[in-house]
Amino acid sequence: MPQKTNGYKDAYSRIWWDKPSPTITTKFYQYCSGRHGYPEQDRALSLREGALLQTFPEDYMFFGNMASIARQIGNAVPPLMNKEIVKNCILTFL
């Protein structure tokens, strides 16, 4: 017989202003798809808010429909992380 659970502890929760964000997934813009609720409002994060959490510049342009843009953001290596990886690779080969 399956073991009884108390439900999913990370569904429908909010991010915190003063704690690290959870991983940004491809469906972060849907409130029912994880822990991506806005800290003070009853809504999910916007596409732009997700992009900013991923460290995309404010003026970065995404193309496609909402789901396509969310997938681009959720599947991306955060730009600032990528910058550090490249910098370390270059230093390794010098």
Describe this structure in words.
It holds the Pfam family DNA_methylase. It catalyses: a 2'-deoxycytidine in DNA + S-adenosyl-L-methionine = a 5-methyl-2'-deoxycytidine in DNA + S-adenosyl-L-homocysteine + H(+). One of its GO terms (biological process) is DNA restriction-modification system. Keywords: Methyltransferase, Restriction system, S-adenosyl-L-methionine, Transferase. GO terms for molecular function: DNA (cytosine-5-)-methyltransferase activity; DNA binding. The protein is mainly alpha-helical and 94 residues long. The chain has a domain at 31-93: DNA Methylase, Chain A, domain 2, CATH 3.90.120. 33% of the residues lie in helices and 0% in strands. It is built from three helices and no strands.
Break the fold down into its secondary structure elements and pairings.
Blueprint: H1 47-53, H2 66-74, H3 79-93
